[in-house]
Structures are given as C-alpha cells and as structure tokens.
Amino acid sequence: MITIDTLIESSLWETPSGNDNEAYEALARSCVDAVWKRLDLPQQETELSLVLTDDASIRAINAQWRNKDKATNVLSFPAFDIAPGDAPGPMLGDIIIARETVEREAIEENKSFDQHLHHMIVHGLLHLLGYDHEDDEEAEEMEGLEREILHALAIPDPYTVHSTDNEND
C-alpha cells in the first residue's frame, strides 16, 4: 500500500468543493496506480509526499537545492537513490508542484489543468523511481513511459503541443 501525504501550501489549490486533500489525493492515487501497473512494481508499504505550492515557494526551493533562481512546474526529491526498475524503499520522496506554472503551461499548450497536473505527478513519480532525462536516451525512455501511463489514464500525449497561437502571426 502506498500512502500519499498531501500538503496544500497555497490557497491557489483550493477547490470549489472544499475537499481539497481528498480530491488531490484521489488524482495522485490514480497516477501512482497507473505508474505501478506500467512498471510492474510489487505492491509494498511506501510513502509519497505531494506538496502543492505556488511559484514563489518553488522558486525558493529550486534556488536552494538546484541553484536555479526561477519557478518551475515540478520538483522531485527522492528519499533514496534507486535505479529504474528497482523496488522503492519505505519512503519514495517528495513531489512539489507549483500552481501558477502548471496552470500557465496548460493554457499555453491548450491542455486542461487536470491533464497537465496528472502529467506533472507522473513525471515527478518517475523521477522518484530512478528515471531521468539528462541525455537523449534517458529522455526518450522517460517520455515514452509518460505517454503510456497517461494513455492508460485516458490523457492525450503530453508532448503533442496544441498551441493556441496562430502560427501565421
């Protein structure tokens, strides 16, 4: 059983229903289940921390831990270094997502916010499971997995950008 601990740090993540943690945990659970199934990982006790924050907070974290003084969509901090395909330990790690950046990217790429949020969680989770995109071969493998996992969740290919801009302008 994978325990998902959701921390909502920013009021930007509040939902109209008021069931914020439940809604985001259910979304994260669907992503975790799809990743586990695609990677054929054994069911085990492990924990995942999902932090939903804003651009200012993720910018500070990005500057502190990656020396990049800018906001980003998602950051992942694995509890343990593992290789792709290895079973995780008792803690997976942290996935931190910035609301404004994810929302802006979804608009720019003509995607729904929920579709892009699913992608960010899957992307972050794959990082926690040892996948990366530092070189072309790694990127191709990771993006292929993301496409397959999101397809299983009925989410279109995240790397097919449907710009809202008129290319003739």
From TrEMBL:
GO CC annotation: cytoplasm
One Gene Ontology molecular-function label: metalloendopeptidase activity
EC number annotated for this UniProt entry: 3.1.-.-
Top-level taxon of origin: Bacteria
Keyword Membrane: no
Protein's cellular compartments: Cytoplasm
Cofactor note: Binds 1 zinc ion.
InterPro entries in the record: MetalPrtase_cat_dom_sf_prd, YbeY, YbeY_CS
Coarse class of the protein's main subcellular location: cytoplasm
Protein name, UniProt field: Endoribonuclease YbeY
